[in-house]
Specification:
single chain; 257 residues; alpha/beta; Rossmann fold; Hypothetical Protein, Haloacid Dehalogenase-like Hydrolase, Chain: A, domain 2; 2 domains; seven-stranded mixed sheet; four-stranded antiparallel sheet; 9 helices; binds magnesium ion
Length: 257
C-alpha cells in the first residue's frame, strides 16, 4: 500500500468488534463512542463480528449519542452472513444467509462428537448461558457459555490449544462447513464461503465503493486469526492490538484530513 492511501480517510472503514473496538463482548468505552461519532460525520463505517445483530447493537450502536449519524453505520453480524443498514429509523436487513433446522441439528451433533473426542468441556457442568447458539447463518459453540465473565474467558484457553484441537476434530466431520476459531472461548461454524470476506464483498457491492477504497481494522489479521480471511478480498488492512491502539490509529486518520 502506498503511504498516501494509508494516511487518508477511506470511503468506508470496516472494524472487527471484539478486541478491536471493544473488550470481548463489552460495550465500547466513551472515548471510542466519541471517536466513532466523529468518524461517521466524515465517512462510512461497518462493524463485523461473529455475534448476532443484537450483540452489535448492544456493544456499539446503543453506546453512540442519539444524534450520531448512524445512517453511515453498517452492521455485518454472524461473520458477514448478514448485512444491516439503518433506514427509516430502523435496522433493515439487506441480506441474510440462514441454515436450515436440519443443518443446525447436524452441526449440534458434530460439536458433541468432537467435544467428546477432545475432552474439551464437560456438558454436565453448568455454563454461563447457552453453550451452543444458533445465530441464523452460523452456529456458535462457546465453551463456558454465552454470558461467561471476561476474566474467565481470557484464562480458559490463552494459547488457543483447546480451541485448535476442537476445531481440528470438528472440521473433518463438517466437510460442508467452515469451522473457525471465533472469540476467546468460541468456535464458529458457517456454510463454506460465508465469512467476513463474503460480508466485505457484499458491502462493497451495496455501497458501490471499490474494496481498495475501504480499510479493514482488526486485532487478528495474523495467520490463523479470525480476521485473516479478509486479506483475500484485497482490502487494505490495519492491524491493531486492542481498542486503545484502534483509538490512536483513528486519531491519526482524523488529524490528517
Ligand atoms: Mg477480534
Amino acid at each position: 500500500m502506498n503511504p498516501h492511501s494509508e494516511n487518508s480517510l477511506p470511503d468506508c472503514i470496516v472494524f472487527d468488534l471484539d478486541s478491536t473496538l471493544a473488550k470481548s463482548k463489552q460495550p465500547i468505552e466513551n472515548q471510542m463512542a466519541t471517536m466513532l461519532t466523529k468518524i461517521v460525520e466524515q465517512t462510512k463505517i461497518a462493524v463485523t463480528s461473529g455475534g448476532k445483530l443484537e450483540q452489535l447493537l448492544k456493544q456499539v450502536v446503543d453506546q453512540l449519542p442519539k444524534d450520531a449519524n448512524i445512517s453511515n453505520v453498517f452492521l455485518l453480524p454472524t461473520s458477514g452472513a448478514a448485512l444491516y443498514t439503518y433506514k427509516n429509523e430502523k435496522w433493515t436487513c439487506l441480506y441474510e444467509e440462514t441454515l436450515s433446522p436440519k443443518e443446525v441439528e447436524e452441526i449440534g451433533n458434530a460439536i458433541r462428537i468432537a467435544n467428546d473426542k477432545t475432552n474439551t468441556v464437560d456438558f454436565s457442568q453448568k455454563a454461563y448461558g447457552k453453550r451452543i447458539e444458533f445465530r441464523g447463518a452460523q452456529v456458535s459453540f462457546s465453551a463456558l457459555g454465552q454470558e461467561a465473565p471476561l476474566d474467565e474467558k481470557l484464562s480458559w484457553d490463552p494459547t488457543r490449544a483447546k480451541r485448535s484441537s476442537l476445531r481440528n476434530a470438528l472440521a473433518p466431520i463438517l466437510t460442508e462447513y467452515t469451522v473457525r476459531i471465533g472469540g476467546k472461548t468460541t468456535i464458529d461454524i458457517t456454510k463454506h464461503g460465508i465469512d467476513k470476506a463474503y460480508g466485505i464483498r457484499k458491502l462493497s457491492e451495496y455501497l458501490a465503493i471499490p474494496i481498495e477504497k475501504m480499510r479493514y481494522v482488526g486485532d487478528e489479521l495474523g495467520e490463523g486469526g479470525n480476521d485473516e480471511v479478509v486479506i483475500q478480498t484485497g482490502i487494505p488492512t490495519r492491524a491493531v492490538t486492542n481498542p486503545d491502539d484502534t483509538l490512536h490509529y483513528l486519531e491519526t486518520l482524523i488529524k490528517k484530513t
